[in-house]
Amino acid sequence: MPTAFDPVAVGRLTLPHRIAMAPLTRRRAYGEGLSATPLMAEYYRQRAGAALIVSEAIQPNPVGQGYTDTPGLHDVRQVASWRPVTAAVHDAGGVIYAQLMHAGRNSHPELLGGGLHPLGPSAVAADGVVRVNGAEPAVRRPYPVPQVLTARGIADTIAAFADAAALAIDAGFDGVELHGAYGYLIQQFLSGNANRRTDRYGGSIAGRVRFPLELVDAVATRIGAERLALRISPGSGAFGLVEPELHELYRTLVDGLPPELAYLHVFEFPGHRDLTARLRERWPGVFMLNPHESALDRPAGPADLRLVDEGLADVLSFGTLFMSNPDLVERLRTKAALNDTDATTFYGGDHRGYTDYPTLAQTTA
User: Fold this and answer.
1) Which of 53, 90, 120, 251 is positioned for an S-S bond with 105, CB 3.0–4.6 A?
2) Of the listed 43, 97, 143, 184, which one is catalytic?
3) Which helix (DSSP H) or strand (DSSP E) does residue 304 occupy?
4) Which residues on neighbouring strands pair with residue 142, listed in sequence order?
């Protein structure tokens, strides 16, 4: 069996090893119109040692935004702002995919502005509250009841994803990952309580998987399946979601995906290792796993490397560990100590807790 440090083919690319950087929302898109910044370019450049970087979540259209200061990929300013980011990663020998995420019901009119209102599969509000301002003190509001996506609205949303994916390739990204995890729009359609539709996009399992499968097909047609991936998080329950018939639901979803996709990315939650293993068996392509210890910010990265040896994953992705260790791969390869992570700097702010974490070479100089 291969190890985490052996090469692997992903889509059109051959990656030098199997340790990827998972997507991490950092809320520092301070450029004009929620554009990327030079600081973001430096952040991703520092982490180009990852086999593949999956970018922070990027909204494909204005109504898809779910947090303050998150970047978009739906206008010319944003496309231009991402080019220095992708160039910096490529110049450092790295690979970077753009993760496209539509928050769906998990937003608020005060955050969106422009008269926009959050959209969802049904008129059911998410659990919790959302921050609606970027400055301090923070202002938080309960999630509102979303406007229900009509059939035309679903078609428009799919078109927006396809357009954003094409813009991502134009901006220099090597591919696109669709965020179907952690309670956002795609998973809202998969759920049984956020999705109470009685049309072809709801009800049965076949109905609930229809939106993600149509979305994947549309984006694959636009940019090529070999440059497209999907991230899922079976059973996460984020924002109050419930997924009835969980195993059958995700087996049906995975069976309906084009096998030519670059990879399938599973964001694993505790208690679902058996489902992870079943999906691994069913998926014929590259299987990327964000194992549950790391998905929940537990620094189990070194121990998780065995999951490649055991055949549970082709590629492992780590989030928080890459946040505080820009040279994570080298640290794992040499079994070196890992930097501690400052959780107070996860979201928003400046370079502190973002681009100032030291490399192993810097700490031993």
Assistant:
1) 120
2) 184
3) helix 301-304
4) 129
